[in-house]
Amino acid sequence: QVQLVESGGGVVQAGGSLRLSCAASGRTLRTDTMGWFRQAPGKERDFVAVIRSYSSNTYYAESVKGRFTIARDNAKNTVYLQMNNLKPEDTAVYYCAGRSRPYYSGPYSGESDYDYWGQGTQVTVSS
Fold first, then answer.
1. 13-26: average pLDDT
2. Averaged confidence pLDDT in the chain
3. Residue (of 122, 127, 106) closest to 39 by Cα position
4. Residue 15 neighbours by CB distance under 10 Å
5. What are phi and psi of 47, to 5 degrees?
6. pLDDT digit string (tens) for 52-77?
7. Spatial separation of the C-alpha atoms in residues 118 and 4, rounded to whole Å
8. Residue ranges of the alpha helices (H) in the chain?
9. Rounded to an integer, what is the distance from CA 63 to the centroid of its chain?
10. Of all residues in the chain, what percent carry a pLDDT higher than 70?
11. What band does 105 get if pLDDT is binned at 50, 70 and 90?
């Protein structure tokens, strides 16, 4: 059974940086497409970034493009989300997700594209 554990969240001032980690157990992540989503209070869970299996091509939501970077370390079986120049509107619970189903040529920006999820880590950006 695969388990994802996110860490690295916290409270940071606007303009600051955080790096989120998503460590997996029970499954090798290098064969899976991995994504990050976030959910702000009272809102739906939104796509943030994805890194595809094998090619490691990345794709970002417009709201974070140029500020966030998704990466993977296959040796550590971990996926990261480096977040720079944080803004108050980035405040949310951030979730890591993985897709074990076969590849398809889509953006992987929907929740239904993913098969397993972590429990989330809180990020709070103060103004």
1. 97
2. 95
3. 122
4. 11
5. -65, 140
6. 987 789 999 999 999 999 999 999 99
7. 5
8. none
9. 14
10. 100
11. confident
Contact 70, 81 (CB under 8 A): yes
77 DSSP 8-state letter: T
Across the strands, what pairs with 125? 12
Calculate ∠ Cα 90-118-18, nearest 5°. Answer: 35
Let me know how long the chain is. 127
Record the tokens describing residue 68, joined without a space. Answer: 């966030």
Mean of pLDDT values over 104-126: 93
Over the range 44-75, which residues count as b (16 or more CB within 10 Å of their CB) and which as e? ebebbbbbbbeeeeebbbeebeeebbbebeee
To 10 degrees, the CA torsion angle through 93, 110, 26, 23? Answer: -40
**Is 73:22 a contact under the CB 8 Å cutoff?**
no
Ramachandran category for residue 74: left, alpha or beta (phi over 0 → left; psi -120 to 50 → alpha): alpha
Structure tokens at 63: 């709201």
CA atoms within 13 Å, Cβ hemisphere of 1: 2
